[in-house]
Structure formats: structure tokens, C-alpha cells
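Researcher: Please translate sequence to C-alpha cells.
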Amino acid sequence: MKKNIEIETKKTELSQDKYSNNLWFLFLKTNLMAMSIAFVMLLITAIGIGIWGYSKLLRFEKSAGITLKELKNTVQIGLEQNPTETNNHKNILLLGVDSVVGRGDVPPLTDTIMLISLNLKTGEINTLPLPRDLWSEKYQTKINALYFYGLDRYPNEPEKFTQETIEELTDTPIHHTIVLSLDKLEELIDSVNGVTIDIPKGFIDPEFPRSGVDVTVERDPAILYETVEFKAGTQTLSGERALKYIRSRHSEGDEGTDISRGERQQIVIKALFTQLLDLKQYVKEPELAGALYKFYETSFSEVFPLEEIVSTVKTIIPVRENIMFSSHQLSTTKDNPQTGALDNPRPSYIYQNQWVYTINNEDLFRQEIKEALF
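Model: Translation complete:
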């Protein structure tokens, strides 16, 4: 059944030595999970056992808002169960939602749509972004609008509609869908003092939307937009600056495409992982670990319970030395007219006069996804 959607989508003494070792081991699984939008990568890399003195454990407890006894009981449950998976893979759909706060009556759209697959047998982690402008033939809209329409279908869990559609579109089972608002991502990056990235190619975007502007009223381009510029090279980005880097879509050349945006998202996410996995900072600052645990509780815990994290960690411990991350991109007909998975047709009435990506060949599209993730 098709929907004719006509909107323009621009828009994570107690026998002190033993107790400290055990809880450090457990905390790192949960806290690292709390620190990142890519929870899975963090929890599986937090394998080392360090030592927190009892006083630091208490500081963590106060900051996290959870008692050590509660945490220990929850972890014990996780150790006794098996993780949710299909053919030894745990698949996650990550949605970065832009609610465009302060910009008028604008629907919440997904600015980031990424598939993440963890191989529980080998430790390999693969990421694959899907273009937000990918056209859904079934629902006659870009996939970045699915979250908005999910508000009608599943008011209490709108991400479920996106998950169902992406599962069908990609022929990939999704075990967890994580929704992270862009302001939360900015908060997360700032909590670890920014991310350091190596920008491969500089660009200038003269039409980056300003925050806090009501687009339903304002018409002056000088007020609606600002110019953002990024030069090639290594630099540390604040949360605000990092969001501009991953969201920019109006620069000239390839950097203005949805594919390049996906590549930039992966660069920032990888850098965030690196920053979050600096275990020394949590040894020195248990309050930071506690704050990030609280971040996990408010952002991920309902869809990715702590028990599930622990069971996943338990499963991948034997292959912890083999953990590796790989980023992938879908091919386009620009790369190869015959075998490209995605096409980028001219705007037409067929696509409501919007700039879109379409699936050039469904079999090739699904095959590329399987090769990338599995």
C-alpha cells in the first residue's frame, strides 16, 4: 500500500581490590556504552580491567544515580542470558533525529541513518550509512521522513516504522534501533572535550541553516542561513562544529552530496569512538563515567538494556583482540553506470520534484549491503 506524501523533507572494607577490579570491568562495559551513539563499539572495546579505589567507586555511584548493588544485580542477569542476534550478528539501526528546535512547525527528520553490524564470532564491526534522500517507492517519500510518519503509526515508538521499512528495503534483520537527537550528540561530544579528526577535503557551505530561526515565518536568506567552512587537515571540533561538519549538504562538488555526508558522519563517529575509549580519563574522573552512564540511561536503556549489553560483551570477550572497525559506502551509477546500487535521477514530478537517490537494482542493492555488513 502506497502513501502519497507531499512534504518537502529539508528540513550512550568490601574486599576493595577484588570489588574494584570486578566493578571496573563491569562499569567499563556499561559506561563506554553510555558514552557513544555507537554503543556496540564501545561496549566491546571496554575489555580491559583497571582499578578504581573505593572512594572513586562512590564518586561514580553518586554521579551515575545508581547504587553499586543495583548495577551488580543487573550485570549478573546479563551474564546469565544470551544476546539477541541472527546468524552470530547483532544489527543496529542508528537514527540521528533533527527536531529543528526553534525553527517553527517543522517535522522531525532523520539526518543520520546508519546500519551497524557486530560479528559476535570474529569481533568485526561494519558500518554502512544509508542516504537520507533514498527514495521509498512503497511509501513515496525519502526515508528520512519515515520517523515523522511513524509518529502517527506508532506514537510511542515512531522509530519502529523506520525500522520496519529499512528491514524490508535492505532485507536485513534489525535487533535494536537507537534514536539520538542531534543536540544529544553535541552534548556527548562536548562531554569529552571534542573530537579530533583528519578532514580529507575542505569545503564551503554558503547555505547552512541557522538554529533558532522560525522557517515558517522568516524569508530572508541572510537570517535563515550562514556560511560554514572546513579546511583539510587535522583539527579538534567542538560538538557544535562537529554537527555542522556532518550535516552540511550545500557545498559545491561531491562534498555537497548525500554520499559524502555519510562519509563525514563515519569520520566523526570513528573519532568519537577513539575519544570515548580513552580509559585513562575515566580512571581519573569517575564522575565523567557516571555522567555518561546517566546519558546511556536516558538515551539508550529502553531499546538496548544493560543486561543485553553485558550478554553481548560476555560473548565477544574471546575475540576481543581481533576487534576491528570497517566503514562502507553504497556504490552509485556515477561510479559505475551498469552495476551501481544507487541512482541519482533528475528531480521530477515522480519524486515530488525532490533531489533523491533511487535503488538502481534491488538485487545489487541488497547484495552490496550483505557484503558490507556480513
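Researcher: Any highlights?
Model: The chain has a mean pLDDT of 81.
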